[in-house]
Specification:
Strand order of the largest sheet: 1-5-6-11-10-9-8-7
Number of strands: 11
Distance between the termini: 22 Å
Radius of gyration: 19 Å
Structural class: alpha+beta
Oligomer: single chain
Shape: globular
Strand content: 15-25%
Number of helices: 8
Helix content: 25-40%
Bound molecules: aspartic acid, magnesium ion
């Protein structure tokens, strides 16, 4: 019983810190002129992802709803209404069970998703760097003692974060470069210019036709991927070209293509895993410790 109480106390503290992270990041974004929109849970269109997961869809009358894997398309459409939007988006990705022990995967997780009309990648990098500093300072002020007892490495990130080009890192360290660099780093860093085959069709292709104007944020001390994002393709012909390269079915994304045809603005944005950020701040072994009712890949649980 004592152990249960003790572990519940730790969980409670972690969840309080997570709640504060969400509150402070929301406040930061509102101050920066963002509007919070409600998340989309079901839609005929969702992120096709660049890796395969089990199907999560529901037949409904003559149609089919998919559970949201990410709100990428809705973000692109939402910036027609508000130039800067964010949402805490529940994402369902029915990952295979080999992802159970990565420490970073849950089949239900929350993404702080944001998008900015007319923004360049650099604008998003700077925005996130400043947001991280604000959020880390805030949780340090409110929970510093608890955090430092869990996480001896905790510090306010130093900005700007280093920008590492994907292909240069690959050449130097081989296919495992992300893990190697994450383990060796003591500060978060950006991985930029990700090759086309590693990403979905919607991140914007650079002029040279090989790498994308996009990024991941990588946490130090081996915590790995934190954020994915980039500038977006927004022109109909280019989107079709990129979908064809990936073999994405036009019919499945017909609602999206119809909207693109009417016109969507250029934009850039990213998605930040809340459980991963909490895990990093609190030095947790697994993201499952960062939420109540965690669902691990390969299992069924409440
Ligand atoms: N596509 C990213 C993801 O959900 C998020 C983003 O690009 O904004 O993985
Ligand atoms: Mg990603």
């Amino acid at each position: 019983m004592v152990n249960v109480q003790e572990s519940l106390k730790v969980k409670r503290e972690v969840l309080e810190i997570s709640s504060e992270i969400m509150s402070e990041s929301g406040q930061f974004l509102r101050k920066a002129g963002f509007i919070e929109i409600l998340p989309v849970i079901i839609s005929p269109i969702t992120d096709p992802l660049n890796h395969s997961v089990f199907d999560a869809s529901i037949d409904y009358y003559d149609g089919k709803y998919s559970l949201t894997k990410s709100m990428i398309f809705h973000k692109q459409l939402a910036v027609r209404v508000f130039p800067k939007i964010f949402t805490f988006s529940p994402n369902i990705r029915l990952e295979t069970e080999d992802k159970k022990s990565t420490g970073r995967h849950l089949i239900e997780f929350t993404q702080l998703d944001l998008e900015v009309k007319g923004a360049k990648r650099d604008d998003i990098l700077t925005l996130i760097e400043n947001m991280f500093v604000e959020v880390f300072k805030d949780v340090d002020e409110k929970f510093g003692q608890i955090i430092r007892s869990m996480n001896p490495h905790f510090s306010i990130p130093k900005i700007p974060f280093e920008r590492v080009k994907y292909l240069e890192a690959y050449d130097e360290y081989g296919p495992d470069f992300e893990t190697i660099l994450s383990k060796r780093a003591t500060e978060p860093f950006w991985l930029i210019d990700i090759p086309i085959e590693e990403r979905e069709f919607y991140d914007r292709l650079d002029g040279d036709g090989k790498v994308l104007v996009d990024m991941d944020l990588i946490y130090p001390y081996g915590f790995g991927e934190a954020i994915s994002g980039g500038e977006r393709e927004y022109e109909y012909e280019k989107i079709l070209y990129r979908m064809n390269l990936k073999g994405n079915d036009h019919e499945t994304l017909r609602w999206y293509l119809d909207e693109v045809k009417k016109g969507i603005p250029p934009s850039a944005g990213c998605g930040i895993g809340i459980e991963r950020l909490t895990r990093f701040v609190c030095n947790l072994k697994h993201v499952s410790e960062a939420r109540l009712f965690a669902k691990l890949p390969g299992t069924v649980s409440i």
